[in-house]
What we know:
Helix content: 25-40%
Distance between the termini: 56 Å
Number of strands: 5
Order of helices and strands: EHHHEEEHEH
Radius of gyration: 16 Å
Amino acid sequence: MTDRGIRRDLSVFRLGRDDVGTLHALLDLFSQAFDDPDSYSAARPERDYLERLLGKTTFVALVAEDDEGQVVGGLVAYELEKFEQARSEIYIYDLAVDAVHRRQGIATRLIEHLQGIAAACGAWVIFVQADPPDEPAVALYAKLGRREDVLHFDLPVPLRP
Length: 161
């Protein structure tokens, strides 16, 4: 730990095309952390799909592993190229830390790693959504950034004929 209470004894790294097994471990973590096995475990894509996804520069999957190689935290984000200026934004889609390892600065380490990736690709901002009832997430993001209150709408996609 550092003086800020951020755990530094973990390996934090970006997954690549050959890390499908580790991506499955991250999906298991998300399934458990979000109590949502239908989304994260019920219909996982085939290996070739996941390899292609992990090979894209606009897809970022980060994991935090303990010294035994267990995934204890992870983050998935997407780089969104903008049209109004030659720049991009990074959207954090999912971020979770195993319940046993929370409050040790792991989420902060993951976000710091993502900030380095964002700087390297020329992104001008990283953004994330948090549900107000999720007080720990709201507190983390408020500590690291500026809050903007927005409305979120899910628009249905019509079925193909």
